Amino acid sequence: MNSTMKLNTSHGVLTNEGIFHKWDTHYATLEIENVSHLSGEGLMYAALQGRFTHLWIHPSTGIRFTPEQVEALLDTQRWDVGPEGKLISVQKNGTWKGYVASITGRALKPRPTWNTRLIFIEQGNWPLDNATPEQILSVADKVESTLGVAMAGSPTSVGLRFLEVKNKRYYEHYFEKSEKIEGASEDEEMDWEGLKELNIPFFAWFPSTESQVGMYLHCADRNASHPYAASQENMGVGTPFMQEGGEFNKKYPGLWNVEISLQYPLTGHNLLPSLFPGGQHWLPTSLLRVATMPIIGYTVKVNQALLWPEGKPVFERWAKELWTFREQYPDGSVERNAIKSIMNNTAGFTRAGAEMDRTMRPDWYATIVGGERAIVWYKAWKMGKEHNIYPCGAYADALFYLSPEADPRKALPGMFDYEHSMGGYKHAWTLPIGREARDVLAAKMGAAIRIGELKKLVKGAQ
Fold it and tell me: In this structure, is residue 228 part of a structural domain?
């Protein structure tokens, strides 16, 4: 990973005093009057006059930008805005806001200029709401110089660009999306949008549990769970083909419509969350590969499968290098949080992107989430098999265990052996069981609500 690459970018942070920026080795502020009253044109002019390629709008300014303001800029015929202007559909607190997260544009009159990008921190997904202007500039500099890609309006965009860089040699081959299915009729095309519906859910299992006052609830959480799962799997590459019936073959990445049966009673099976999501699903190779291991004991009858002829480690170098980059900074630092957002947001976008995007690959997303589900389940199964210790809950990549032992390392032998590695489990928290916690564990409620209530007790006990 190149840690000295210099890009031709210039960053500024708009505050109530003006544009905070770095001049040579010193920080300075380009003073602007009445910052909070700047119009769309005013923001663009300020960025261009300061020769900034990126202008970060600090939340303290209170400035927000609506789609209507973007249209107003276009209507003047003095500006070309887009096509990278993005609307954020869901704000960070989960409510619809309808403000713009970032726009890219340039002046057309009196003469064309270079592109500049406005990034509205409060509206977007960069975890920089509480960062100082100096910290924001520092994050931008470190990300660009280390990854060799320019900052963008979202961590996802940076992550996807870095993914392309890490696969540059084979980019055209890896990211070519076939519109055809091998062996299908000429009028039958690949339905990438339809594949979005073939979603593999994460674990959300935390049934009512009887406990005693004096016990302890331990939460074990995986490091970089999504990126790790992505790094361990080969993604489907090439022109897909359909298989009717036949046998399951772990060699081919893809999605399988199967009927599942348990070949023989599995020790502790009833004490674990279900390895498979409920209902009818097309299951990815990554999940079925673990299920059909001889030691696990599931068998599958294949009805149909959508498979790819090749599997390539598209995310392997990407994930490992981002993890190394992230580990240079302490927990809670703005740098570490920014890198975490790049790692975690990017994999999810492989399902959520537009159909014309090369990286909109729902089959890759299913492979990643299916692999994660398999890894988490296998970890819980192995702990049960070796130590007769079973979880009382599982949510996404987190596992919850009740124990009479206060020390989590003694309660869960071997669980934290790789706590500093990507994909390793670390101790998140321990809650002594009092009457309130006992009642929460015994109550009838959903997994997410139960965990939320338990976290409140953990926070209150600190």
Answer: yes
The Cα–Cα gap between 18 and 32 comes to 5
- Which alpha helices (H) appear in 292-333, and where do they start and end? 316-326
Structure-token pair, residue 30: 């380009």
Task: Name residue 405's amino acid.
Answer: E
Closest listed residue to residue 289, CA positions, set 265, 243, 254:
254
Instruction: Report which residue type is found at 259.
Output: E
DSSP state of 95: S
End position of a domain, from candidates 118, 151, 184: 151
Q: Could you give the CA distance from residue 232 to residue 171 in angstroms, rounded to a whole number?
A: 19
What does the pLDDT look like over 193-212, one tens digit per residue?
A: 888 877 788 899 999 999 88
Does 299 lie in the same domain as 419?
Answer: yes
Region at 51 (left for phi over 0; alpha for psi -120 to 50; beta for the rest): left
Q: Which residue reads 């690959």 in tokens?
A: 361
Q: Helices 334-352 and 316-326, interaxial angle, to 10°? A: 160
Q: In this structure, are 243 and 146 located in the same domain?
A: no
State the Cα–Cα distance between residues 371 and 290, nearest whole angstrom.
9
Provide the β-strand partners of residue 323: none
Q: Are residues 106 and 237 located together in one domain of the fold?
A: no
- pLDDT mean across residues, the chain: 88
Is 414 part of a structural domain of the chain? yes
Task: Give the separation between CA 290 and CA 40, rounded to whole angstroms.
Answer: 54
Q: With left for phi above 0 and alpha for psi between -120 and 50, is residue 388 left, alpha or beta?
A: left
Query: 248 near 292, Cβ under 8 Å?
Result: yes
Asked if 311 and 420 count as a contact pair (C-beta separation under 8 A), the reply is no
pTM: 0.89
**Which residue range(s) make up the domain with 226?**
192-461
Q: How many domains does the chain have?
A: 2
Nearest to 353 by CA among 240, 192, 120: 192
6-19: pLDDT as tens digits: 688 999 999 999 99
pLDDT of residue 92: 47
Over 80: is that where the pLDDT of 263 sits? no
Helical ranges in 292-357 per DSSP H:
316-326, 334-352
Mean pLDDT of 303-327: 96
Does 221 lie in the same domain as 109? no
For residue 91, pLDDT over 50 is answered with no
Domain-embedded: residue 162: no
Strands 11-14 and 54-57: parallel
Report the pLDDT value the prediction gives residue 16, as an integer from 0 to 100: 95
**pLDDT tens for each residue of 97-119:** 678 888 888 888 777 888 889 99
